[in-house]
What we know:
With 253 residues, the chain is an all-beta fold. It has one helix at residues 123-127, and strands at residues 39-45, 51-54, 60-63, 76-85, 99-109, 111-114, 116-117, 133-134, 141-143, 146-155, 163-172, 175-183, 191-200, 212-220, 223-231. The strands form 3 sheets. It has a 5-stranded mixed barrel. Strands 6, 8, 9, 10 and 13 form a 5-stranded mixed sheet that branches. It is globular and about 50 Å long.
Amino acid sequence: MKTILKFVGIVVAFMAILTVGSCDTDDVYVPYNPSFANALVTVKPNAEGGFFMQLNDSVVLLPANVSQSPYGNKEVRALVNCYRVKDNGQTGAGKFDNSYSVYVNWMDSILTKNIVNFPSENVDELYGNDAVEIVDDWTTVAEDGYLTLRLRTLWGNDGVAHKVNLLYKGIKDGVFQVELRQDAMGDTKGHWGDALVAFNLKDVNMAPQKEAKLALHYLSFSGEKTVTFSLEGRKYDLTSAESSPAPYSARLK
């Protein structure tokens, strides 16, 4: 079945692209405001039963004060507030080329979904075709095998949940083609609201660590648009993690 995304207002402060790594000469870095996220990560379980956080395609964050993932054996994308410390508090730092130990104040998972194949028919009926905007900020990024998007759309009825899906359309001129679809469930008037969603691109057959281009097509409020992302294969997978069921169209009524 489709995963549901409820659109709510969010406020995220962007202090730096790598705030937790900006204090090489300090023992501890205190965040400017612990209420706001200062990192967007992939929370990954490891072979020792703990977890690590992939910050981007090359940097790993090792939690010094948390031994087990709050999400169990599931891999999810999450917003994190953390600061850098010297003691990593866990083993395994040598497995990574570039890692930092951090103290985690809090983390909050975001909706994480698998990509689905573009259906041969009834695409509007299955996935909707309502307009949506993609916000160009630090949380809209392609990294670690995920496409994470900050979306903006009209939200009028708090009791209505919108549905979003990323559809894979194949390769054209060497570029992966995907299409973002929103089904607003008839809730197309009201106030503007933002939300985050991450799409796992593991079903897009990319060679590990191979650079590629991904073209994202979507219907905005001003018409059809396309934005292109640079994409690299995933670097660290220390254990197999549970994944959310793919919302294939065959499972829908």
